[in-house]
Design brief:
By secondary structure, this protein is mainly alpha-helical. It is built from seven helices and three strands, in the order E-H-E-H-E-H-H-H-H-H. The chain has one domain. Belongs to the UDP-glycosyltransferase family.
Length: 172
Amino acid sequence: MEKRRESVVLFPFMAQGHIRPSLALAQLLDQKGYNVTFVNTPLNIKKLHKSLPPSSSIKLTEIPFNPSDHGLPPEAENTDSLSYNLICRFIIASPSLKLPFKTYFTTLLNYRMENIVEKMELVMGESEKGKEMRRRACEIKEIIRDATRDEENYKGSSVKAMEEFFNAARSN
């Protein structure tokens, strides 16, 4: 009888600084024998198909997102395609992914995970705390942008930290 593999679902924020490291993590988990599902918007998933080797068993899953509903350009499913002025609008629009993700995740597990649902409500909900978290995310984005400027070929602290993390993970 084949041993049941543990499952991992990754749903990174729709920015290359989140998607690329998450995909690298997904590939490491896949190599270690986990069932990995990577969830994102259709345009991002389409791009990711090209990044995976044919031997990968990572499942790429699309959830709907209509940027035009939020005053964004039609192809704006990633911060890479946005001007700096539209990034905050994009962040504020991200809670619209809550219901499609919740539906997908509930279906995937075939039962409700109250703890996960609570956390989704907190981060993506319309509560004051959720709004404050998204407002703070815009402020943090400014701080990170300033901290990660590419001066003298230094990639920035967060990129360097991710590289160190992946190098350590690969050595295990």
